[in-house]
Amino acid sequence: MRCPFCGNEDTKVQDSRQVEEGTAVRRRRECERCLRRFTTFEKFEDSPLIVVKKEGRRESFSRSKMMAGMLRACEKRPISIEEIENAAFAIEKVLRNRQEREVTSSEVGEAVLEQLFKMDEVAYIRFASVYRQFQDIQRFMEELNELVVKRRTLTK
Q1: Which end of the chain is more exposed for a tag (fewer CB within 10 A), N or C?
Q2: CA distance linking residue 151 with residue 155, whole number of Å
Q3: 51 bridge partner residues
Q4: What one-character DSSP code corresponds to residue 125?
Q5: What is the structure's pLDDT at 46?
Q6: How high is the pLDDT of residue 90?
Q7: Cα separation of 12 and 1, whole Å?
Q8: In sequence order, which residues have a C-beta less than 8 Å from that of residue 36 and are 6 or more positions away?
């Protein structure tokens, strides 16, 4: 594996562990020249999952793009990167286990909202405000009220 910092091809594995329910391997590596550490992932390559956007455009599903949105929503919240990775994996697993190879962007967004709701209400509202494109404070308040009702029904 080539070092992403200096380009050296001699790196050694410091630690390996299975992630994503054993479907991938995460390796911590160290460059033997510059001594910097970095992480690599080995993953089974599956058939592509296509996301159909609102305007009809199609693009390949990108877990990293989905995670970037989740990370922004979870910024400065008490949520570990591992929790976010696990949630992203769970979403991707559900999407890939469906019979269809295409999924709408709204299905992805709703799946993210579902996972964020379980993790952190503030992250949920942050993501919802961007995803649902609140136009005014009234729509924001409606979403907050829906969140309160949803939480009450779950705690009963």
Answers
A1: C
A2: 6
A3: 59, 103
A4: H
A5: 67
A6: 95
A7: 9
A8: 3, 5, 6, 30
0.85 exceeded by pTM: no
Interval 107-115 mean pLDDT: 96
User: What does the pLDDT read at residue 45?
Assistant: 66
User: Which structure tokens are listed for 145?
Assistant: 């009220």
Q: Are 6 and 29 in contact (CB under 8 A)?
A: no
Give the pLDDT score at 78. Answer: 97
Cβ-defined contacts of 14-22 (< 8 Å, 24+): 19/85, 19/89, 20/89, 21/89, 21/93
Q: Decide: residue 27, CB within 10 A, 0-12 exposed, 13-18 middle, 19+ buried.
A: middle
Q: Give the distance between the most distant pair of CA atoms in the chain.
A: 58
Cα 64 from Cα 41, distance rounded (Å)? 13
Q: How confident is the model at residue 155 (pLDDT cuts 50, 70, 90)?
A: confident
The answer on pLDDT for 84 being more than 80 is: yes
Residue 59's SS3 state is strand
How far from the centroid of its chain's Cα atoms is residue 129's Cα? 17
Query: What 3-state class would DSSP assign to 15?
Result: strand
